[in-house]
Amino acid sequence: MNKKSTFYQKLCAxxxxxWSAIFIIVPLLMVAYYSFTDxxxxxxxxxxxxxxxxxxxxLRSLWYGIIATLIxxxxxxxxxxxxxxxxxxxxxxxxxxxxxxMWMNFLIRTYAWMxxxxxxxxxxxxxxFLHLPNLHMINTPSAVILGMVYNFLPYMxxxxxxxxxxxxxxxxxxxxxxxxxxFNVFLKVIFPMSVxxxxxxxxxxxxxxxxxxxxxxxxxxxxxxxxxxxxxxxFQVSNNFNFGAALSLVLMVLILICMAFMNKFSDTExxxxxxxx
Amino acid sequence: xxxxxxxxxxxxxxxxxxYVPILIICxxxxxxxxxxxxxxxxxxxxxxxxxxxxxxxxxxxNTIILAITSAVTATVLGTLAAIGIDKMKKGWRRSMLMTVTxxxxxxxxxVTGVSMMxxxxxxxxxxxxxxVLGFWTLFIAHVTFSLPYVILNIMPxxxxxxxxxxxxxxxxxxxxAKAxxxxxxPAIKPGIVSGFIMGFTLSLDDFIISYFVSxxxxxxLPIRIYSMTKKRVTPDMxxxxxxxxxxxxxxxxxxxLSDLKGDSKKRKKGAE
Lengths: 277, 272
Fold this sequence. Notes:
Chain A has helices spanning 3-11, 14-35, 46-50, 55-84, 88-103, 106-117, 122-129, 141-166, 169-177, 182-193, 195-211, 214-219, 227-236, 241-276. Chain A is an all-alpha fold. Chain A has a single domain (31-37, 44-276), classed as Orthogonal Bundle (MetI-like fold), CATH 1.10.3720. In chain A, helix 9 (169-177) runs antiparallel to helix 10. The longest helix of chain A is centred in the last third of the chain and has 36 residues, at 241-276. Chain A starts with a helix and ends with a helix. Chain B is mainly α. Chain B has helices at residues 5-29, 45-52, 54-87, 92-106, 109-126, 135-160, 163-171, 176-205, 208-213, 221-229, 236-271. In chain B, helix 3 packs antiparallel against helix 8 (176-205) and helix 4 (92-106) packs across helix 6. Chains A and B meet through helix 1, helix 2, helix 4, helix 5 and helix 6 of A and helix 1, helix 3, helix 4, helix 5 and helix 6 of B.
């Protein structure tokens, strides 16, 4: 291809570069600026010192996020695999079915779980009907994690499915011809080639789980706060933008560290996959 | 490969998990009593109630306008960006640009929302605009968080294209621009379409970022729902969700059927 057309093609990215600079980079700089200033705009470390009061909240959020992500992965991988093994038409239908709940408003879906888990909710009514003792489920950590899993499960299924469905069938056949049993085919061929899907699935579930505030408000009933709750409070209730910015900064740094670690892992895997092909 | 009974049961269980809450929403939307907990009888009064609620209806309208405009803008910007990035040499510039592009996707939504709110409020204070938060701040935010998804959907398709294809088209007399239009664009079309759909979906469903960058002047449906779920929800919200669900279902069935027709046409053509 000649140089001129390559130049024009590169130029295509410029609106995006400009947009990203103004609406991604500058806002992040604003977060940093607000973190280190007080309400009058003068420099202070006060917000950073205050963060130590919320160490427990940070740890709790990370922990719940990790559990929700692992549950999603365990639930999503088999169904993504089974869907990718189905006939083409059944695949389209089932993927549509996975996507439809994503189109329903997540606030209402979460609220529906409140109706299900409540002390006078759907499950307990069924239990009473069967003369079984009632369960207290709402306002517990398990309810919050359930809410996370329910809301973000499609985000785990879709990337894993899209990797598995693109997988070259002849590689599986080659492995079988070379004497691998079903288990080994999966472990040595299918799983390593789906790591990139798993990594993006983990990213898409872990990040919103760690930073959620609505799910913990509704299903946790405000009995314990997650980091998202504290940030939301600073901006919408107590109007302390500076401390809110400091909390956001730390949350962002924590998650970026986790994700950088994950991406490094997937990059090396990709290179390996490239060598195989 | 033959499908085992286990896989069928597993698929059924996961779909049951995904759809039981939706089913409950649908059932309670026909509840006669004004609670979302006790079922007393069937009625459609919540649907009638919903269509009387001007604020909610207006919020629906706002949400759709915002989703269409932001998804179209993000798709155009993102397609161009993917083409440009694909042609950039591997190096620190390219990887930096990709990292920056991915920030809204990797960053927690709440941080994206908060950071944009800070920018808008800062600019608003600087230019002395009262109530800077409204349609345009929502639009900017929605385009920004949709962009990485559009680019992410298109980049792999560009990578898969044989570079000789465009050259072949040019050898056969196409101008570079025409070669793009005729060869590259059709090849990446599935990526563009899924990017658009993703942007549209994300925009429709987005609450967290919108919550921070919206003002009282322009309410979207999720914001409206949030303010309603602060109190105990009346079933008209469920009626609304049921309607949304049915609309999506019908839309997808129509798309599926037209796809099937297209496929059989293609097959016929192939046979000829």
